Amino acid sequence: MTIENLLKAAEEVQLTDEKDTGMRHSYGRTFDDRNASSVLIEEDVNFLTPTTSVTQKNLRNTLTKKVDDAAHLIKDKNIILFFGEAGTGKSTIIHFLGGCQMKYVKVNGLNHITPISIKNPHLKTIKTSPFAQSETLYFTPVTVNIRDVGGDTDGAITLCDTLGFANTIGAEVDIANAIGIARAVKECKSVKPVVLISYKSIGNQFRDVKELASVIVRLIPEIKDNIKAFSFIFTKFPDEEKGTIHPLLRDIYDELREEEKSNVSFMTFLKDMLQKTRRSVRVLDPINNQPGEILDELAESASIFYPDEVFQFYIIERSKTIVQEQVRKHQLSIMSATKRSEYSFVQYKLAQLKQLNNLLGQDYIGQIYDECVRYISRHLSEEYQSGISILNRCLNNQTVLSIDDIEQYRTCINHDKLADKLRNDYLRKEVVHSSALIVYLDQQVDIIIKSLLEKDIDDLSVKISLDKIKVLTMYFSDINVKYKDACQRFSEKDITKLYDACIVLEQHLNREYMTTIYCELKRYFLEVFTDSVSKLNYILSQEKYGNETIESLKECIRMFETAISTLTLQSHISKEDINQIYEDFLIKIMNHYEWINEKIMTELRGQCSFREIEQLFKEITSIRTISVIESRTNQSYYSILEQICGCIRELRKEIEEVLNGFYRNEKNNYSGLMKSLSTLKHAKWIEEYRLEVYADVINNIKEQILKHVKDLEKTVLQTVSNLDNYDQIERFFAIQASTHSESSK
Questions:
Q1: Are strands 304-305 and 190-198 parallel, antiparallel or unpaired?
Q2: How many domains is the chain built from?
Q3: Mind listing the pLDDT tens digit for each residue in 344-392?
């Protein structure tokens, strides 16, 4: 058994017909096994135990349909639910009460009572055998009319056969069946629980009786409030032992351990059995007893009403042990995958644990789930601490920032991002967010830059720190803005210092030399701007500007705007010089914009492919997200937009002209119509920029086409009714040939 198989089995027995049951239960897989690494897949396959087999999977598929059918059959019905260990004769008693004639036979040397002359078709699916293993594999209801089998009670009652408790088929089928039974029983109107106890159950030191009682009190936790509804039937007792049943039960009661006596529900169940067998004992004899008599007795007995509030899901100890083993293996798988940062696989496994916990409601599953969540949270926190330790060592303690150091830090960031969905869906709020490492990097760079601005340009630590920040800009684009801002502020500060030195220390320094240095520094500052633009030439020359290109252009424009608005620079650097470089840069962007604009115009004058126009128009719209370009292109942008809308309206006129030709009894140009409609279909995107243009055109055309179809239908009917006229016949075939030729294209 694996948790995957168990959840699949449980999923398949959910009642999904909302109309008939009023309930809906579904569990969906959110992970594709193919997405996991091969190592993890092999690890998961190794979870299989000998208890899972192809036979069990086939049983599970059969179980799906049978339990669903049973739920519909017993909905709002009064039922008798038989409890008993495997081999106690539940299937036999249902055949007997269903009116079958019974007889003794020998099967492999064993005595067996088998049904003959089965009249009720539902009984044909219920098998009996003399062997210890349960023949019943799923919840099976059989409705019996009590008068039809010799009873005096009016009406019908539904007998329900179940899989034997502690059967030997396997935990997967056992648990799935238990879920199905609990869900199905909750749909019926009332339940009469009947407990079957065989001679063998009492003969093995009463162990089976105790286990059966334990299962029932877990199935019905508040058994004390419903104990009157229980009936007891004893099976397979020799004649000479029938009178010993009550004394045997008394022995069981007297020999209970103190631990067993402390279980109030368990004691309530045994006391009730003891009291009822003191008054009378019903020992089943399928050969000689009358089914109507027993059904009359059961019909008069008390019932459990509101079973949806009384019955709870249960799981036997053997199956619980197997589930515990699989849950533990699941935990190890989650821990192993977490170490490798395979978070999609971790989420898949964690979702299964959570689902299983909700399904079975076992404390140990919840504990393992919580342990897994804590382990993952701790791992993410440790990786965060490892990341900031790497960054602190590189930025504060090393002279040079290496690529390996940055890659280690980026690996920590990437691992954290992989865990985003897992963090949001399953982990607690206090878990470090994936953006924490990026935020920490920004904070550290801000601290370094702040300290740099307090130092002189000739301080060696300034160069070391700026070198580190420059390396970071190669891997973290957001740092680039901080780096350029720091460099610019250093330039401003040093130009001002040099200028002040020329004035204040004029009598002490070589004025001519200082002035030369000052002018060279101003020229160098302008060269930095020119160089920044030159580096973007390869971007500006691209045929298409993507999102990254637009962002690079925006960043450069921000640099120019900052320089132009900085008052400190204005007394040293000519604003006209900066504006000239800036304007040359903007002209290159505008040239590209106008080139795209002309391509749109060419397309509108030519084939007018709205697919091509859409891509071109999106590009100029994207370029206009640069605010300075937007203000310069407003007129041309809205002009081209209006021309595109005009082209759509022209297309509308062409379509209308074709349709008008239909009304004038001209040759039907379906080919032209389909071509125009196909072209129009690709213009839907215009709705993003100009509301209702496309909708108005398409709605108008739809109305006209529908009108044409109706007129065509009317014409055909009129033509058929006047086939005695030759010219009408010719007209009919013309219409038929036209529509046929176009439909075949």
A1: antiparallel
A2: 2
A3: 898 899 888 888 888 777 888 889 999 998 898 888 888 888 888 888 8
